[in-house]
UniProtKB/TrEMBL annotation:
Domain GST N-terminal: from-to ranges: 17-96
Protein name in UniProt: Uncharacterized protein
Domain GST C-terminal: 101-234
Organism, scientific name: Diatraea saccharalis
Family designation: Belongs to the GST superfamily. Omega family.
GO biological process, any: glutathione metabolic process
Domain of life: Eukaryota
Coiled coil: none
Length: 254
């Protein structure tokens, strides 16, 4: 698979008959759906797109041109990671990723919602540092503290239980990126093992989950991409080391 991000003027790769996910390699929301597809051990194609110079055809699958979008039949797609992931879990019920108890499913959704403040703080710290306010750092750590408290209450290896589930795959992409913040000089966002012992143990456990391991990027890699994006020139193709052997060539301009 090529890591090349297709852009304006590039043609849509031919449909193979498999599920096809349109994504951006460094997007945490797209990663959520990649992890679910991996966890389900589904056969799928992955197409990366440049979000600054979007190929015209992405709007056929996602009206706003956002990722992820899942093409489940040729020319038919659903978008938004939450919608996609619930669909996948219900469509392919083997190895279910959601709790069977309705109350626990509700608790998982509330946990994700309560964690959103930390996600917001991350985006400001990473891409708009001049707008960072002290209360945002506080919100970030409140999110981490709430997550650690919930893990302590549940007493399981993962939030879902003894195996990682949808709630883990929803939160993990942000934790993966949080680890890059100290490398960008944002030391106040460090996840200190002395304070967050249970959380750091969880992070290390998540790195070993096969679905995660197959897609995981190191903090140094996320930091490098973040720096390029913060400068206004995101290097989408920084991981691409292969020729685009399975994609049609870009159209020539008349």
């Amino acid at each position: 698979m090529s890591e090349k991000h297709l852009q304006t003027g590039d043609v849509l790769p031919p449909y193979s008959g498999k599920l096809r996910l349109f994504a951006m390699r460094f997007c945490p929301y797209a990663e959520r759906s990649v992890l679910v597809l991996n966890a389900k051990k589904l056969d799928y194609d992955l197409v990366f797109i440049n979000l600054d110079h979007k190929p015209e055809w992405i709007f056929q699958f996602s009206p706003k041109g956002t990722v992820p979008a899942l093409e489940y039949e040729q020319g038919k797609a659903i978008f938004d990671s939450n919608i996609i992931n619930v669909y996948l879990d219900e469509k392919y019920p083997d190895a279910p990723l959601q709790a069977t108890d309705p109350l626990r499913r509700a608790e998982d959704k509330m946990l994700v919602e309560n964690f959103s403040g930390a996600q917001s703080a991350y985006y400001t710290a990473a891409f708009n540092a001049q707008a960072l306010q002290p209360n945002m750092v506080e919100n970030y750590h409140k999110g981490l503290e709430g997550l650690q408290k919930e893990m302590e209450s549940r007493g399981t290896k993962f939030l879902h239980g003894d195996e990682a589930g949808l709630v883990d795959f929803t939160i993990w992409p942000f934790l993966e990126r949080f680890l890059a913040l100290p490398l960008l000089g944002k030391t106040e966002f460090a996840i200190d093992s002395a304070k967050y012992g249970l959380l750091t143990t969880y992070i290390e456990a998540m790195k070993t989950v096969p679905a995660v391991k197959a897609y995981y990027l190191a903090a140094e890699t996320h930091a490098k991409f973040t720096e390029s994006r913060a400068k206004g020139d995101p290097n989408y193709n920084m991981l691409d080391t292969s020729a685009v052997c399975c994609m049609r060539p870009r159209k020539k301009k008349e």
